[in-house]
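User: Predict the complex with adenosine-5'-triphosphate.
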Amino acid sequence: MRMDDFGDTCVLLKHGEVFLKGHNRHRFVERLHDNLRLALRGIGGSTWIKVAQNVTVLGGQVPQEALVERARRVIGFASVEPAVRVPSTMADITATAVAALRALNTERPGLGFAVRAKRRDKQFPLTSSQLAGHLGARILAEVEGPRVDLTRPDVVLTVEIDRKETYLSWARHPGLTGLPVGSSGRALALLSGGYDSPVAAHRIMRRGLACDFVHFSGAPYTNAASVYKAYALARELNRYQPPGKLHVIALGKAQKQLAVAGAGRLQVVAQRRLMVRTAGALAARTGAQALVTGDSLGQVASQTLANLVAVDEVAELPVLRPLIGREKQEIIDEARAIGTADISMLPDEDCCSLLAPPRASTRAGLPQLHAVERRLDLDEVTAALLDGAQVLLPGEDTAEVPAQSTGCPASESESESVPASARASAPA
Ligand code: ATP
Ligand code: MG
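Assistant: Here is the predicted structure with adenosine-5'-triphosphate placed in the model:
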């Protein structure tokens, strides 16, 4: 059953946390609308946005489903409700409510329904509860089958009255809630190929931070699979925000230097420190005010408290770890919900497994780490890593990862050996 059969359609976007904001609420709402407009780009027809109190009304010369699909990706709306809009007269409202329930009851005979009315225009002759009662009675009188069920209704008919227009809706999708992306500033998310880091970035985006991404590959000693994955993940994440950039840094040679310097069982933590140092320097260029990682306390050897502390010691910016208290299964479920799981599950050659000791240390000693690092010129190493960084903009309009973007020096590139599945994974 299509809503178009009942009149002009639109989509109601209920504001989430934004509506808790005080005097600066308009700033958040403007950001929300900017992000919505960006999400509507390329939809294939004109669209319009109208703002009422705590709700945004979205319409246009495009199918309602397309509007719903785009709006559901915009962070900051509590719900996305396809609706029919009619003039705010009793006759129009009643006729539409009755017609809708008749059609719904044909699909699902004997359904239980509830009417929830809300009057934004206090001039309207009936109060909200009077209107709900009136509509319920008219539906029962004119349509055979439906019954009123206020506790566990199969269908909730919501009726929202504005001065000129009234919106009727009987479908509701949960929105992504949170704060509009960008309203809290910018962050740089460390994106590996696993399940955790994309979920972490997504959570941080939902707290209003726009994210750029950095991925460290093991090039020239690993193939480009991890870069393809990071690219596909960033592209997926960019569908929820004004697109952020992906910086790809080939870490392999520096990893070898750490191994040669005698990192031994501290190799993984030493690498993680180098990543965070480098990311910190990169953040100064991208304007990020924080780093984001997918660490979850104790999940693997490198994420014990002692090792996280060792990493934080070299961080110039706060390291945000939104998954710190999450369990792996919760994280994987969330990865499925946001659309990154299918990419994360693909095989790759992670730079962290390169040179990883058989038994990684769970209690990195800072003095030992300092001793290893003193054998390297860290400033020089970091500068070289940054100089070699490649910058990509994973967006929906980019079909392929450019060949030179693998993070592997051309001579040693193994991009031909990227599993076909990794290439195919990049959402078209
Ligand atoms: P993930 O599932 O995100 O790969 P993980 O469980 O494998 O995480 P680690 O490998 O210990 O955990 O990595 C912890 C965090 O460090 C990651 O979530 C990510 O933010 C960052 N990180 C690890 N490896 C890389 C990499 N190669 N490039 C960028 N960031 C990385
Ligand atoms: Mg990992």
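Residues 398-428 have pLDDT under 50 and may be disordered.
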